[in-house]
Amino acid sequence: MRKYNKEQTDYIETKKALDALEAREKELEAAFVKSLGVVNEDGSVPSRTWAIDDDAIADQAIDDFGVLVEECGLWKELCKAKEAFQAAEERLVNYALSLIPCKKEREILTAASSNLKYRIQIIETVMKLDTKTVTR
């Protein structure tokens, strides 16, 4: 069975928590837009506030939904979850970089880790790593 270390586990758990909150926000927004009874010019019913064709209605819906999300506490939860996820991601990247034995390559990848494309590759690679094979 695969073994994860603390950095990998924290990353997985914070990502799941953030994804769940974002899904809850999306569902809440869809229900909110549906309750407005808005129908776009092409006959479609938007599921997001920003997808409403009429700009005046969209602007008001965006503002009203923002208030709703803040009042119910979801915005605060989302902000905390995003901060926790970003911190877990940073710890995971630092862990991945710490495994690189050659100083020169580690320095190059440390600089490259701020580039989104390379950061994603670093994260994908370290998440494939079975930590029981790594000695530290």
The shape is elongated
- The whole-angstrom Rg is 21 Å
pLDDT under 50 segments (min length 5)?
none
Return the average pLDDT rounded to an integer.
Answer: 91
| Secondary structure tally: strands | 0
Q: Element order, helices and strands?
A: HHHHH
Query: What structural category do the secondary elements indicate?
Result: mainly alpha
Largest sheet: none
How widely separated are the two ends?
Answer: 20 Å
Q: Assess the beta-strand content as a share of residues.
A: under 5%
Helix content: over 70%
Number of helices: 5
Question: Could you provide a short overview of the structure?
Answer:
The chain is an all-alpha fold and 136 residues long.
Structure report:
The chain is mainly alpha-helical and 136 residues long. The chain contains 5 helices and no strands. Helix 1 (6-36) packs antiparallel against helix 3 (74-98) and helix 3 (74-98) crosses helix 5 (116-128). The model has no long low-confidence stretch (mean pLDDT 91).
Question: What key attributes describe this structure?
Answer:
single chain; 136 residues; mainly alpha
Spell out the blueprint of helices and strands.
Layout: H1 6-36, H2 55-71, H3 74-98, H4 103-112, H5 116-128
